[in-house]
Amino acid sequence: MSPSRRFSSRGAVGALVAIAIAAPVSRAELLEEIVAWVNGEIITRSEFEDEEKVMVAEVYRGYTGADLDQRVAELRAGLLQDIIERKILLDRARALFQDLNQIKEFYYKGFKEDQHIADDAEFARMVAEEGMTVDQFKTRLLETYAPKEVLRVEVRDRISIGDAEVEAYYKEHSEMFLVPAKLTVSEIVLKASTEDARAERATKAQAIVVELRTGADFAETARRVSEAGTKDGGGLLGEVAKGDLAAELEAAAATLPAGGISDPISMSYGFHILKMDSRVDEHTSKLEEVRDQIRTYLTDRKFSEERVTYLERIRSEAEWCVKSKYRDRVKTETQSTMRCRES
What we know:
Blueprint: H1 11-19, E1 34-38, E2 41-44, H2 45-62, H3 65-96, H4 100-114, H5 120-129, H6 134-154, H7 163-172, E3 178-179, E4 182-191, H8 195-213, H9 218-225, E5 236-240, H10 247-254, E6 265-267, E7 270-280, E8 283-284, H11 287-317, E9 320-322, H12 332-335
Antiparallel strand pairs: 1-2, 1-9, 3-8, 4-5, 4-7, 6-7
C-alpha cells in the first residue's frame, strides 16, 4: 500500500504536491469565493481552480488530439464532484480508523522509502522550497490516500467472487481466452531468375533438404547457401503470426512439426525451404491458467459498480452543498443528495 510514485529527482516532492488535494483552508482563503461546503469545511474557488490546472496538466502529458480534448472535458465535468467525495471519504476515514496520525506516518514512511530519502533535514529543505512544512506534506499524503483506503476497506475488501462465478464467466466467454498460434520459423531461399534455372535450383533445393533431414545444421547451411536477406542470421525469420507469410509458405508451415524441415516450396522467384524452430498451436487457455485473471476482472467490475452505490450513500449521509453558479459542475443526479444550510 505504498502511497507514492517513483521519481528520479528533487521533483518528487513537487510532483506529489501537484497530485495531492488542497491543504486545509487558511485564514486568507476565508476571504475568497466559496464554491462548496462539505461537512462544515469549505472548498474555495482557488482550491478548485488550482487542482483543475494541475489535473489538466497531467492529462496533457498523457494524451493528444481528440483523446486529449475528450479527457480534459471529462475531467472538468467531474472534478468538483471528485473533490467533494474525497472530503466526505476523508471524514469517513476519521470515523473508521482510530489513529489517523499513525496512518499519516505510515504514508510518509512509505513515500520516503520509495524515493530513497534518508536525510530528513534535506527533505525538510526540499519541502520548504515547495512552500510547505513537513507536517503539511504529511497531511497532503493523508488527504490523497486515506480516501482510497476507505474505499478498499468499505467496498473492495467486502467483495467475494466465488469459483462458480469464475467458471460461469469462463464458459460464457471462452473466445476471450483463445491463444493465437505462435510459430518461430527459419528459411533458406534459392532464387531462380529464369525458367532454365528452375530445374537446376529445384534439384539443389531437394539435395539441401536431404542434408538437413540427415543432420546438417540449418543455420550454418543458411549462411552458406541462402540468397535471402536473413542468411546472415542463420535464416531466422522469427515469430510469425497468421497472415505474415505468403499463402504457399503458410500452407507448408501449417502442418510442419517443431524441428521439422519442409520440402522445397516453389515460388515465383525460386524455392523456399522452411524449418519450424518452435510452434505453439492456437488453443484455449485452461480454466486454471486464467482463474486468477478472471477473478480479478470480476472483482474490479463489481468494485466499479458497488463504488458508485457506496459513494451515493455516503453523499446522502453527509451535509454538503454547492453554490448555485457551480452546480453545473456536479452531475444532476448527484445534486439530489445535497443538504444545504445556505445557498
